[in-house]
Amino acid sequence: MTTAAPGITAFGAFARAHQVDPYPFYREAREEGALLPYLLDDVPVHLVTRYTECAQVLTSPDWGHGYAEGISPFRDPGARIPGSFVRMDPPEHTRLRGLLSRSFLPRAIGELAPTAARVVEGLLDEALAAGGLDAIGGLSEPLAAAMVQGRLLGVPEADRAALRTWELAIARGTDPDDLLDPADMTARTEAAQACLGYFAELVARRRREPGDDLLSALAAGVGDGVISAPEVVGIALLLLVAGTETSVNLIGNGVLALLRDPTQQALLRERPDLVPAAVDEVLRHDAPTQFTIRVALRDTEVGGRTFRRGDGVVVLMASASRDERVFTDPDSFDVTRYAGRRPARRHLGFSLGLHFCLGAPLARLEAEASLRALLARTERLELATADLDYLPSLIHRGVRELPVAVSGRGRQAVPPLGR
């Protein structure tokens, strides 16, 4: 854990003891300043705390990752995995992301809506029959596995549990090293090696026996100069971790927000047309991805401060999305905030700019399908425990389990997505 020194910020939101509710500490940081000096992995960087400055860093071409140029002060093994473009800069980022972008357009993702609805209905059938639901293990995890591992990556169902275990270890390992235990770092390395080996075999198999999944489409380009086999493997690993964590925690955080606020839950039952706006409010209020990193690619200025090429910042997107300078009553959960003719300012839950979340349409689809069906098919949702166990990761925010007491209405007509 980073220790404060003269001129260095002691940042409470990164303390595990405050993991249940880091938001008061984000507020304290915003009050202290927009740009705060901080030591991360013993490297001097700055925390970016407020909306205006976060948005500037995320959207400016002056900022990127700098690994290819050897100027990044941050540790990131993922930057050395071919195809893991999340930590790349143009032109490689542009080339690899471009190979996927068409598959993640809203129209293409919309074609997956019937699959998502069918999976959710089946999961809720089981939950209502049992009289209770774990919104993580019984809803968001199996839905994400079906959509990401199944439809996108073509992973056989028998292999998905192992991949989820590896994925969780890798996701935990995306936190800075000084926020990890030695066991976390060992697990991260072992899980990454296991995943890369698994996907190398799967890509080879898909080149021989293609399916109708995205991985098969990417594998078909190997040998034509479009993409290399290691790059396809790296993309598969990226989709597994980013796609799973974002969807699982977005759904879990959304259900939890409704459990904690019966008034908003009742309003959403009365107004299912507000479900898309509610998903945006979850992304603002309790985002599944709390922060990201950037490096100055050239000398530049943010918030009146000059940054030199190679300087690093931690962009606190979750803090920015509760900035009192931008959002009215930012700590309240309001499913109407993004509805109507004058919605609130755009949140940073999916980032902004060049690295805006590629899988945002899929994560939205899964979250909307889950909330819409859950409310349509139940009369009551109540939190079945007061003791929530949050994931150890600080970048990825969510709970391990979310037990919900439900009373059902049987099979109901679920309003179509987007209505």
UniProtKB/TrEMBL annotation:
Domain of life assignment: Bacteria
InterPro entries: Cyt_P450, Cyt_P450_B, Cyt_P450_CS, Cyt_P450_sf
Protein name listed in UniProt: Cytochrome P450
Keywords: Heme, Iron, Metal-binding, Monooxygenase, Oxidoreductase
One Pfam family here: p450
Protein family according to the UniProt entry: Belongs to the cytochrome P450 family.
PANTHER family assigned: CYTOCHROME P450 YJIB-RELATED, P450, PUTATIVE (EUROFUNG)-RELATED
Organism: Pseudonocardia xishanensis
